[in-house]
């Protein structure tokens, strides 16, 4: 690429590497291009390098190698306070010695904005997060959820084009978290801001983002919209990390017309979609989502390979049934079925046959 | 301490009461020498002992003559002014450098931070007479011996450890993401320091400053070495008064100093509690 900064790229990471000790790379060869207005989530287990990436973008860490660009200009040599990026911190980082209104006015004050304009903007930002009545309080007088809203308002009050969020909902209880997930996404889309959101909660990543970057071992394992990520994982790490997943191990027998025949370790044969296996003889991990497993023979296509399974446990979860099976020596094979009036409730000990559409069963790297 | 439970054994009962007695004795041992000078300073005689009139609580036995002497005598007055000129300056220097040192040494990337910290704290540990003698020779070489600046610097060196210790203690609870948040919102490092960090570590800075002030205000050994007649401070004058004149004016001065110390401590503690309450922390 002669000119890497193409027109619709707003945030760019180009061949970025980061090492804290000069030996181990925490971030390895990161390449990422984000268009303006995108809500991108960096998802990964702790230690995968996602927070380091966010800190490099904010300017609190410097990249050991590579280039980070914002709106086409390299920001490697710009200190954090001149980057103009909004940020919501994990612990909110509200200034405890200032009132809520003073907290929000702080970024405007350091920009030398006039008093009346400042007050108008603070008021608008507080109203935006429905906290208009709390301007005179101190952070310690607010609940966790309220502090979270204030942190959000403070990151947005100076109208940055890019806002970073570092696990902002981690400290909230489940109900509040779900409510805030929707509020944040609605707000981001309404204001048209670009958001980089870091989380280790995959539900959050799936429900909020335009695209999700799955981090592991300092690399992006897959960068895709939520539905692609869930339905078409590119490797077995992503398949395991996103959502619930059943894994069976085996060897590729043949690949024909986009269908791979895999012999499982107990000798049974199944049809799969080859994703990152290329030739017969390769070891593979086959991945099937629990809700794509079918045990009603009428719904399976003619000639589909089926496997024998023994029901080990049936769990009633209200909206769905969750059944644990023994399949090809795997005792943790889960299937999920919708609680519908005609749905069969399986009994422990029952012998059944299961199958699936070949495209739902993905042969991934071992 | 909780009340004695009904199932306490005889041994526990005995310990329960003797513990109280021991505590009382220790407290008496600490406080008696200070308390006893207060009535003695109102003695109408030039003695360091309780006269029979005083013991009878006869008004004749009491007077303010030693206080009058303190406020009219030129050598006491100049000593007081010297102290009042030296202590605040030494406090300002200690607080400035001590706070900066504490902040610098709290950064994890600073090399040899433990060693540097130990050196800065050493004036608190090294016997005062050794520091004083060292300062005497060093300051003589560079022309600071016998000067106002010399005494201020010497006292600042003694005060800095207190500031470093108290400020370091407040920095332990300081959330680094606050300074990051400030930088992220566009504040340069200087603005961040004065608007965010300083107000939050202020209680530690104030306590350290108070200790530094009292150290300078009380100090006699170093000033004897480093100072000259022009820097004769109150403690120095008291030392002379005790050795050469045995004048009960010392008792009046001591009472005034105790009163000032108590007032300072009370004021600062009130300020500290107020500022902690303002930022929503519970006063500790």
Quick synopsis:
Chain A is of the alpha+beta class.
Q: How would you describe this protein?
A:
The complex is a heterodimer of chains A (366) and B (284). Chain A has 366 residues and is α+β, with helices and mostly antiparallel strands. Chain A has two domains: 11-236, 3-Layer(aba) Sandwich (Rossmann fold), CATH 3.40.50; 246-365, Nucleic acid-binding proteins (OB fold (Dihydrolipoamide Acetyltransferase, E2P)), CATH 2.40.50. Chain A has helices spanning 50-58, 100-109, 115-128, 144-156, 174-191, 202-208, 226-231, 236-241; strands spanning 11-19, 25-34, 39-43, 65-70, 73-74, 86-88, 162-166, 194-199, 211-216, 219-224, 246-256, 259-264, 269-274, 283-288, 307-316, 320-327, 330-338, 351-354, 361-365. In chain A, β4 and β5 (73-74) form a beta hairpin. The two termini of chain A are 33 Å apart. Residues 1-6 of chain A have low confidence and may be disordered. Chain B is globular and about 75 Å long. The two termini of chain B are 19 Å apart. The mean pLDDT of chain B is 87. Classes of the chains: A alpha+beta (366), B mainly alpha (284).
């Amino acid at each position: 690429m002669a000119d890497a900064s193409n027109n619709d790229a707003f945030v760019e990471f180009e061949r970025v590497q980061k090492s804290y000790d000069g030996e181990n790379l925490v971030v390895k060869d990161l390449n990422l291009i984000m268009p303006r207005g995108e809500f991108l989530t960096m998802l990964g287990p702790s230690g995968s390098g996602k927070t380091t990436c966010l800190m490099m973008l904010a300017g609190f860490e410097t990249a050991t190698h590579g280039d980070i660009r914002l709106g086409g200009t390299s920001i490697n040599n710009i200190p954090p306070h001149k980057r103009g990026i909004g940020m919501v911190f994990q612990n909110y980082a509200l200034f405890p010695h200032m009132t809520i209104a003073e907290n929000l006015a702080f970024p405007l004050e350091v920009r030398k904005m006039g008093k009346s304009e400042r007050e108008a903007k603070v008021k608008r930002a507080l109203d935006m997060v429905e906290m208009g009545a709390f301007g005179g309080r101190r952070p310690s007088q607010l609940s966790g959820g309220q502090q979270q809203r204030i942190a959000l308002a403070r990151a947005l009050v100076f109208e940055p084009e890019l806002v970073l969020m570092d696990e902002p909902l981690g400290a909230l209880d489940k109900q509040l978290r779900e409510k805030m997930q929707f509020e944040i996404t609605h707000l981001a889309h309404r204001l048209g801001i670009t958001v980089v959101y870091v989380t280790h909660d995959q539900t959050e990543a799936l429900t909020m983002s335009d695209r999700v970057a799955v981090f592991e071992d300092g690399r992006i394992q897959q960068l895709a919209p939520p539905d692609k990520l869930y339905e078409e994982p590119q490797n077995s790490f992503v398949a395991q990390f996103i959502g619930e997943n059943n894994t069976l191990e085996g060897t590729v027998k043949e690949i024909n017309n986009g269908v791979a025949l895999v012999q499982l370790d107990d000798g049974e044969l199944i049809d799969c979609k080859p994703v990152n296996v290329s030739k017969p003889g390769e070891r593979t991990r086959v991945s099937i989502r629990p809700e794509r497993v079918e045990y009603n023979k009428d719904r399976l296509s003619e000639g589909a390979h089926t496997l024998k399974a023994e029901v080990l446990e049936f769990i009633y979860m209200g909206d769905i049934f969750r059944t644990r099976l023994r399949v090809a020596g795997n005792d943790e094979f889960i299937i999920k079925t919708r609680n519908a009036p005609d749905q069969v409730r399986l009994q422990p000990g029952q012998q059944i046959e299961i199958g699936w559409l070949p495209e739902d069963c993905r042969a991934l790297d071992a | 301490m909780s009340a004695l439970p009904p199932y306490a054994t005889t041994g526990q009962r005995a310990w329960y009461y003797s513990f109280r007695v021991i505590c009382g004795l220790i407290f008496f041992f600490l406080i008696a020498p200070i308390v006893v000078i207060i009535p003695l300073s109102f003695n109408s005689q030039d003695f360091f002992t309780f006269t029979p009139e005083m013991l009878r609580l006869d008004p004749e036995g009491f007077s303010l003559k030693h206080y009058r002497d303190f406020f009219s005598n030129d050598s006491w007055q100049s000593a007081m002014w010297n102290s009042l000129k030296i202590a605040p300056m030494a406090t300002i220097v200690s607080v400035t450098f001590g706070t900066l040192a504490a902040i610098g040494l709290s950064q994890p990337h600073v090399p040899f931070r433990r060693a540097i910290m130990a050196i800065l704290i050493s004036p608190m540990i090294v016997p005062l007479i050794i520091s004083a003698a060292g300062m005497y020779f060093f300051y003589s070489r560079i022309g600071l011996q016998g000067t106002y600046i010399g005494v201020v610097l010497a006292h600042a060196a003694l005060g800095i450890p207190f500031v470093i210790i108290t400020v370091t203690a407040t920095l332990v609870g300081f959330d680094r993401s606050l300074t990051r948040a400030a930088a992220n919102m566009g504040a340069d490092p200087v603005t961040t320091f004065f608007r965010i960090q300083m107000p939050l570590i202020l209680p530690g800075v104030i306590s350290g400053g108070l200790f530094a002030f009292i150290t300078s205000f009380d100090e006699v050994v170093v000033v004897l070495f480093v100072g000259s007649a022009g820097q004769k401070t109150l403690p120095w004058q008291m030392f002379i008064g005790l050795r050469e004149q045995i004048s009960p004016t010392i008792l009046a001065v001591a009472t005034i100093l105790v009163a000032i110390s108590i007032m300072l401590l009370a004021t600062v503690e009130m300020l500290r509690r107020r500022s902690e309450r303002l930022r929503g922390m519970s006063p500790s």
